[in-house]
Write a structure and sequence with these properties.
Number of strands: 10
Strand content: 15-25%
Radius of gyration: 21 Å
């Protein structure tokens, strides 16, 4: 018995440096993110690597179809963690828009950063949302979160997605290729800027972002409180001016049956290593505990409640 105890102490000493602020007994988890050219996948891979390096929890980040697909994969038991847009998480929990029935077997882990609604074009004559009328516009995959963001934005400007534009339904990567080939005039891309797909396009072509005016932003926020006003700085893609847009939150969720240890370790691995994460990905600079605890549409996981409580922050849990 004493021999076993001594071995346990030795293991704790050997792993103490890495796991000092995490909980022991972590599991191996699958983390669904988004497309290979989106922010979810790039940033998700960095977060997964850091959590695995610094805690007893091992996370594998994989590509996916985005928010809705992530919730469905979690509901089917194929994933334990996932990224979702803040509005899509609310739709699932309420059983609206993208979801015919309520899906409530998941909880919030953290709200990590803002995802801007980016309307990307190579045509300098498309300056406003109204200029999209009659144009070929990619509005995301059919039934995706991006699609409903496009619906909301166009509605704010009095445009109908089926009647006033010629919609195509494409992923970020396919949208960029279609823009480059002249097959579409503009594309809605909802992701944290800079977005890999747009950055790649901007490396070879002059990219323009369609901005919003304050009046329509305020109308949209009043109708759909999931949105907030946001600004994409001109140097992000080499634009001439800063661009006003709206954004939703990028939220990490977990299945309810993920252990408290693993969720606690995820938060520890991320927020205790912000500087290292920022060196690996620009979105690390946006990590903020107050913002992480700000999502109200879906209750927080007990492991997250524990973590935030230790930081003197209260979140609504299950």
């Amino acid at each position: 018995m004493r021999k076993i105890a001594a071995v346990a102490v030795m293991l704790m000493m050997l792993t103490g440096a890495a796991f000092a602020d995490s909980l022991p007994g972590g599991s191996k988890l699958v983390f669904t993110t988004g497309g290979a050219q989106g922010t979810y996948y790039g940033f998700g891979g960095v977060l997964a690597g850091k959590v695995g390096e610094k805690t007893s929890t091992t996370i594998t980040a994989i590509t996916s179809g985005g928010s809705k697909a992530n919730i469905e994969a979690m509901d089917d038991g194929d994933a334990q963690l996932g990224f979702v847009q803040s509005d899509v998480g609310a739709y699932a929990y309420k059983g609206t828009r993208l979801f015919d029935d309520k899906i409530t077997n998941f909880s919030t882990v953290a709200n990590l950063y803002m995802e801007q609604v980016q309307i990307v074009t190579l045509d300098p004559t498309i300056k406003t949302v109204e200029d999209l009328k009659g144009k070929n516009v990619s509005v995301g995959a059919a039934g995706s979160g991006v699609y409903f963001n496009a619906v909301d934005v166009l509605e704010a400007y009095g445009l109908d997605i089926e009647k006033d534009i010629k919609p195509t339904y494409q992923s970020f990567g396919d949208s960029v290729e279609a823009l480059q080939d002249g097959k579409i005039d503009a594309a809605f891309i909802v992701a944290g800027a800079p977005t890999t797909a747009v950055t790649s396009l901007a490396a070879t072509r002059k990219v323009y972002l369609v901005g919003f005016d304050d009046e329509h932003v305020l109308w949209l926020i009043a109708k759909s409180p999931y949105y907030s006003m946001n600004v994409i700085k001109r140097d992000v893609y080499g634009n001439d001016d800063d661009v006003v847009t709206v954004a939703v939150g990028a939220v990490v969720i977990a299945r309810d049956d993920v252990s408290d240890v693993d969720v606690y370790n995820f938060l520890t691995g991320v927020f205790d290593n912000k500087d290292e994460i920022t060196k690996a990905h620009a979105k690390g600079a946006e990590l903020d505990l107050k913002f992480a605890a700000s999502y109200t549409a879906v209750p927080y996981h007990p492991g997250a409640v524990k973590y935030y409580g230790e930081k003197d922050m209260k979140v609504a849990g299950k």
